[in-house]
Amino acid sequence: MTATIIDGKAFAARVREQVAEHVKRLKTDHGIKPGLAVVLVGEDPASQVYVRSKGKMTVEVGMNSVEHKLDADTSEADLLSLIDQLNNDPEIHGILVQLPLPKHLDEDLVINSVAPEKDVDGFHISNVGLLGTGQKSMVPCTPLGCLMMLRDHHGSLSGMDAVVIGRSNIVGKPMAQLLLGDSCTVTIAHSRTKDLADVVRRADIVVAAVGRPEMVPGDWIKPGATVIDVGINRIERDGKNKLVGDADFDSCAAVAGAITPVPGGVGPMTIACLLANTVTACCRANGLAEPE
Ligand code: NDP
Question: In the chain, N or C: fewer CB atoms in 10 Å?
């Protein structure tokens, strides 16, 4: 059997088109232009690439993009003061502080200083609580993108067995909450999980969010299961740099019913969902109907 490849790149392009249409309507009908501010502290090369591509796509869908690049040794007080300024700026509807932050900054404190209604990453403790209790919140972009692809592929996820490998606050835990919200039976696996292969073999849906190149082999996958590969791992193979996921693509694709590739799967959906969240935040701020 060969798996259907879930084309996250094409799906993300459709989401961005819908966002662009909504942005256009906000401008023509209400004279409002959504604005996204991205704050980058330091010079982490991967973060710089993400911030650049977020900024480019924000402009492409017709929104305002504001980038604040701060030195690696920026003090916590200065960072908090910038966030406070953005929280109070009516032209800014979404604020994203690019993670990871340099070690001397308290990540939790910084995340929780963003106004929850502008927290388009969905990491603020209020949004985490709202999501956990099934209330309207800002949903973290990567898990949201995964859920959208799963719903698109399966229709209803009700009753399916889902295994999420990874329990981070930004991917694993919110992913599990979303799958639970869609009535999956959810298992969260992590580095201390016993018999991981057996746990994964039970799953109709496997979400791999570990950060270990090609860790999940095809013989862990139940035939016909859907594999969502969140991992982004840079490796060197045959003298070339390559981007691979947490699933071993070829062996998994040979048994799975569907799989997301790396690159071209979850990654593009993450940015598309960030843009969608910014429009949602803008609509909520102005008391307007939100995009579906
Ligand atoms: P973290 O490092 O925060 O979390 C990794 C999780 O994997 C932890 O819960 C850890 O368990 C678990 N883990 C580590 N080793 C094993 C193992 N051998 N067996 C089972 N579980 C294990 O990573 P993130 O959640 O931030 O990111 C995960 C991956 O997703 C990374 O590759 C990252 O680059 C990628 N990513 C991709 C995004 C996208 O847009 N496509 C966005 C965000 C992340 P424990 O808690 O016990 O340590």
Answer: C
